[in-house]
Amino acid sequence: MAEQLQSVAFKVIWVYGEHGPWTTPCTPEGRRIHIRDEGRVWCSQPECRCNDLVDTEERLPEDEEPCYDSRAPRDFRFSAGVYHNGPRAGQPIPMKQTGVGKLAFLTSRRHDMSEEDRVIIACFRIDGVGPREDYEGTFVWAEKGSPYARRVPPDRIGEAPRFWDYRKGGAEPVWGSGLFRYIPDDEAQAMWDAVDALCDTPRDTVLRDLEAIRFEEGYIEGQPTTRLVSYYERNPNLRSAAIAIHGIRCQACGMSFVERYGELGEGYIEVHHLKPVSEYEGEVVVDPKEDMRVVCSNCHRMLHRGVDGPLTIEELRAVLKGQAGREPPLPSV
Asked: Mean pLDDT over residues 24-51, rounded?
């Protein structure tokens, strides 16, 4: 029987960026810490740009990538690396027990931090596993714009969760020489939640909406979802704008979550696209007034059960009227 896949955590070099950790390649001081004080393997290699500049005050351009550690929490990708010594020197290190759909965590520590204080700086759901053109070795990565990717903001790195706090079973805070560790699902979920709590982004809302759409319209992972994520990423206020215009009472049945569930339902409603996302061609501009409506969860499901495609709000209201013998109340905005 095939071995069950696990999530994975990586050891990332701390990057002393100009505007905070991982905001740019290392500062001159950071280069000297890695090369002169710590003897980091890659930083000390002749082909590394940082090694060329170790005795200078020259700053690398912000978009330069002297190592994949420098952009890992921004690009959400990392590698198992290659063997540096022994008969397999230069060969990619295999990473066989993780795969698409599992979680990946990027962890690091400053030179003045103990291993016990190693922190989680980013996490993402794995969308791909394998080699990449720009580097040797086996990579895991998230697709650009993935709503399943989280990075601790540079100005909150002091609040980042400590990696070893989530390792159960009395695991000693000793990483060793390897670049990655496999993580059980329960530990991975706890780590994800801890990082997510520090990330003030609209992606949680986007994620819930995407999962609802996949369920309702039978979507699989792919281009329609990617386009929707990309649009939300550019305009995170779209959903809020639709609610501001249409309110929080279902425009099909008139149901209000706050009236039904009290404080638990306060402010909640789902947003429905009048034109199915699968019909979008390329990038689109969505008008929240004309192209979106607000509906409860039940009506949202029923709208997408039409035989010839999604029902209109008016058609669903007619169904509800036929079932109840009376017109559903219209929302007042």
From this structure: 92
- Per-residue pLDDT at 209 exceeds 60: no
Residue that wins the pLDDT comparison between 280 and 115: 115
Q: Which residue has the tokens 């695991």?
A: 171
Q: How many helices (H) and strands (E) does the chain have?
A: 10, 10
Look at residues 203, 228, 201, 219 and name the one whose alpha carbon lies nearest to residue 292: 228
Q: Quick one: which of 1, 5, 51 has its CA closest to 26?
A: 51
Residue 282: CB atoms within 10 A of its CB come to 5
Give one DSSP letter per residue of 27-53, joined into a string: PHHHHHIIIIIS--TTTTSTT-HHHHT
Strands (E), the chain: 7-11, 77-79, 103-108, 119-125, 128-132, 135-141, 149-151, 180-183, 270-273, 292-295
Cα radius of gyration (the chain): 24
**Which residue type occupies 140?**
V
The boundaries of the domain holding residue 291 are: 203-324
The tens digit of pLDDT for each residue in 160-202 reads 999 999 987 767 899 887 889 999 989 999 999 999 888 755 4
User: Which among 176, 196, 216 is the end of a domain?
Assistant: 196
Residue range 229-248: average pLDDT?
A: 64
Pick the last residue of a domain from 196, 218, 242: 196
Q: Same domain for 316 and 229?
A: yes
Q: Does residue 305 contact residue 252 with C-beta atoms inside 8 Å?
A: no
For residue 39, the tally of other CB atoms under 10 A from its CB is 9
More confident site: 115 or 85: 115
- In the chain, the percentage of residues whose pLDDT exceeds 90 is 40
Give domain status of residue 333, yes or no: no
Mean pLDDT of 241-250: 86
Q: Is residue 144 part of a domain?
A: yes
Domain total of the chain: 2
Distance of CA 209 to the CA centre of its chain: 15
Confidence at residue 271, expressed as pLDDT on a 0 to 100 scale: 86
